[in-house]
């Protein structure tokens, strides 16, 4: 198993642990309230979505991971998603070590 697959497994694990939220509106809310510790944005997200999240995360100084496609994120989360946010620093640290 390569590191990318391990990272996707970690994202799925964080969701099952209740330390991940997904969906554009919820993630934006988490970024604004600074609950999000990192944001995973699909590499093939629409131009408007990419711009919106990259600008918001830069403004609030939240790291953005763009290593995964929409299909990979959706598969890891079990639902069709373009963006998700990790809420726990431990998961973020583990994810950064893998990428």
TrEMBL record:
GO cellular component terms listed in the entry, alphabetical order: ribosome
Keyword field contains Ribonucleoprotein: yes
Pfam families: Ribosomal_L7Ae
Transmembrane segments: none
SUPFAM superfamilies: L30e-like
Superkingdom per UniProt: Bacteria
Keyword terms, alphabetized: Ribonucleoprotein, Ribosomal protein
Gene3D superfamilies the record matches: 3.30.1330.30
Domain called Ribosomal protein eL8/eL30/eS12/Gadd45: residue spans: 9-87
Protein name as catalogued: LSU ribosomal protein L7AE
Lineage, uppermost ranks: Bacteria, Bacillati, Bacillota, Bacilli, Lactobacillales
């Amino acid at each position: 198993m390569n590191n990318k697959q391990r990272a996707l497994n970690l994202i799925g694990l964080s969701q099952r642990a209740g330390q991940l939220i997904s969906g554009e509106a919820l993630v934006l809310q988490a970024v604004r309230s600074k609950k999000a510790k990192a944001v995973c944005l699909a590499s093939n997200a629409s131009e408007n979505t990419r711009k919106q999240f990259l600008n918001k995360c830069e403004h609030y100084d939240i790291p953005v991971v763009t290593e995964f496609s929409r299909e990979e994120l959706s598969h890891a989360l079990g639902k069709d998603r373009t963006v998700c946010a990790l809420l726990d620093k431990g998961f973020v640290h583990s994810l950064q070590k893998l990428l």
